[in-house]
Structures
1.
Amino acid sequence: MFRRTALLALAALLPSSLAQVSEDFESGWDQTAWPTYAPDCNQGGTVTLDSTKAHSGTNSIRVNGAGGFCGHIFFGTTAVPTGDVYVRVYLQAQTALTSSHVSFITMPDSNQGTDKHLRIGGQSGILMYNRESDDATLPALSPNGIAASEALPTGTWECFEYHLSTNGSIETWLNGDAIAGLTSIKGVTNEYNTQWQSNTEIPSVTGIYFGWESYGGDVNTFWYDDIAVASTRVGCL
Ligand SMILES: *[C@@H]1O[C@H](CO)[C@@H](O)[C@H](O)[C@H]1NC(C)=O
C-alpha cells in the first residue's frame, strides 16, 4: 500500500513526462486511481476485484465482458507519460479470439479526435491493433498479415507488452517475444503495416484501459494483473 501510494504521490509531483504507475492489486482495487471506463453506454459488462485468481499474490481484476458494443467495460489509468509509452500487463483470457472484431485494451487518442481510440484486440483469430478513426488494422487482415500475428492463448497468464514511440512506431511483445505483425516501425514498411502507416498521425493517448469490447456478439472474461505503465520498457517479471 505504501509503495503504491508513494508512486502515485510521486507521479502527481513530477512532470507528466515522468508519470508512471505499477499496480498488483494486492491492496485491493483503488477505483479512484483505476476507474472504470465505458464511453457512450454500459450494459452488462462488469469489473470486479478477484481474490481467487492472480499472476502475483492473490488478487487480480476480473472483467466480465458482455456481447455487443454496449456490453463493453474497461478499467484503467490516465497516468500516461508524455513521450514514449511502455505498457506491461499480465492478462488471461477465458475464451479464444474468434473471427469477430473485439478489443481488450482501449486508449483515447487525442490525435484521432474526440472519443476516438487506439485499440488492441483481435479479429480473424489473431491479436491486432485497430485505429478507430479510419478502422485500419495492424496487421492488415490479409493471409500474410494474419500469419504475422498470433493467437492469444487461453487459461494462462500471458505477459503482454507494447511500446508507443514518439515517432509513431509501435512494438509489441508476448512473453518477451516480439510479434512481427504487431510491429510498425517508422520508415520500415511491409505488406501488413502499409495500411496502418497510410495515416502518419502519431498516437497521443490520454488513458490506458483494460477490459472487453465486442462489435459483434462475442463475450469473454479477462483477468488483468501486475500492470506497469512507464516511459521505458519494464519487461516481464
Ligand atoms: C522510431 O522509433 C522506433 C521505436 O523506438 C525505433 O526503432 C526507430 O529507430 C525510430 N525511427 C526513427 C526514424 O527515429
2.
Amino acid sequence: MLLSLHQTRVTFLPLLLLFWRSSDGMPDPAQRELLIHQEESRLTGGQVTLREEAEKKLDAHLHHLKEKEISAPQFLPSMHFFKAKPFIQKSPVFKLLQKMPKGAALHIHSSALVSVEWLVKNVTYRPHCHICFTWDNNVRFLFSDSQPFPRWDCFYWQLLETLRSRLEDPTEFDNSLMKHLSVFTEDPDHEYPNQDAVWEKFEKSFIAAAGLITHAPVLRDYYYRGLEELHQDNIMYLELRSGVSKTYEMDGTIHDRVWTLKTFQEVTKKFTADHPDFLGARMIISAHRALGVNEVKDVVKEAVELHKTFPDVVAGFDMVGREDSGRTLWFYRDALSLPEELGSTLPFYFHAGETDNEGTDVDQNILDALLFNTKRIGHGFALAHHPLAKELSRRKDVPVELCPISNQVLKLVSDLRNHPAAVLMSEGHPLVISSDDPSLFGTTGLSYDFYQAFVGIGGLKANLGTLKELALNSIKYSSLPAQLKEKGRLLWQSKWETFVAEQS
Ligand SMILES: *[C@@H]1O[C@H](CO)[C@@H](O)[C@H](O)[C@H]1NC(C)=O
Ligand SMILES: [Zn+2]
C-alpha cells in the first residue's frame, strides 16, 4: 500500500466530481473552493494549523510582503543569486527569515562552512602564512615557520606579511583572495557559460582553502566560527559533511583523522557550553566520487570504526563530488555493502540526483541511494523525474535536502520558480532546506536558501505553516537520537513562540 495519507485524501475526489457542474454548466463555486482547499492542504505545511492569533497575523503579513515582491519589476529568485544578493538583503521577507528559528542545517560541507571574509581577514593575517600563485593563476596557502619548499604545483612561496607590506592597496589584494576562495563573481553568466566552467572554479576554490583550513590551530577556530555564523542566523544544530582531513602544525607535524574528529567534538562541546540554546553538531564522513572501489572500501571501514568510537559525533557516511563527472553509487556497491556485512549500523546520507542528465547511469544514483537505505537524499534534483523513486522516498519517509542556491549557481536551473522541487513542495514531499557550500556561494546560514525556497520555489501559496514544517523537518530528519530530537523540538518551539510574539 502506497502513501496511505494521500489515499484518504484522494477518495474524496470522485464524490466531488459528481457535483462538478450544476445544471447551467457553471462550476459550483462552493465545490471549487473545496477543491482549492484540498489542493492547498497537500503543500508542505498544508496540514499545519496556525493556532494563535499572533501566528495568523504573521502569516497574513508575510503573504502581503510576498505579494509585493512577486509584483515588483525584478523578481529576485528569477535572477542569478550573485546579482540578486544585495536586493535580497533588503527584502523584508528575508529580514523576517533571518530572525526566524530555522532548526538545523543538515547539508553543509566542512570546507565551505565559514565565510571567505573571515578566512582572508582573519586567517591569512596570522603570522607565518605563506602564499603561492600557481602557473594557472590559482593560489595555495601554507603556514610554515621556515621557507616552504616547492609543493602542490608551487615553486615560489612568499610570506603574506612581506607581500602585503609592499602592496599599495592591500584591500584590493584581499578582495582578489576572496575571489580565489569562492565562486562569487559580478558577472556569472559570462564567467560561467556552462556547468563545467562553474564546477572547475568550484573545485579550485576548495583546493585554495585547504592549506588554510587544514592548519591545526586554524581548524579549531574555523569550526567555532562556523557554528557562530549558523547560530547568528538562528540555527541550532549542524550536520557537516566532511572528508575529515589530516591536519598539520607549523613545524610539519601531521595529525590524523581521529585528531580532527576529537577537535570537532571538543569545539562543539565548548560552543554549546558558551551557547546553551545550541543543540550541537555531528559529522557525516564523506569520500570523493573520484576514488577507486578499494579506496572507498578503506574509507567505509574507517567510518564504521569511527562511528563505533565516536557515536555522538559520527552521524553517517556519504559520497561527494560532482555526480556527473564522478563514479556512480552502483559502481561502489561492494564498498557500500560493507557496513551491513560488518554488522555496523553506519547510516548513509547520499548525495543523489544532483544532475539534469536524465536517463544516464548517474541519473540512477537516486534509486540506488534509496536501495542502499539512505536516510536522506542530498539535492534530489532529479527526483521529480523518477516517479517510482519518488514514491519510495515518500513511503520510506526519506527527505530531500533542497539547496536552491547551490542548484542555481551550479547551473541546474536558472529561474528558481522552475526548480523541480516546486512539484515536491506542492505535494508535501518530505523536504529540508540547506545551503550546501555557503562560503563558496557567498551566503551564511540558511536564510538565503530559505528565502529562495519560500518565495521562489514555493511561490505565493507557501505560507507560515510551510516555514514551520520546514524548520521542524530539519530536526525530525536529523540523525539525532529520539530524546535529543525531542529536546531540540521543545527548544525550537519556545524560540518559535518568542519569534512570533516579537513580530506582532
Ligand atoms: C581571529 O579569530 C580568532 C578566533 O576566532 C580571534 O580570537 C581573533 O581575535 C581574530 N583576529 C582578528 C584579527 O580578527
Ligand atoms: Zn553537497
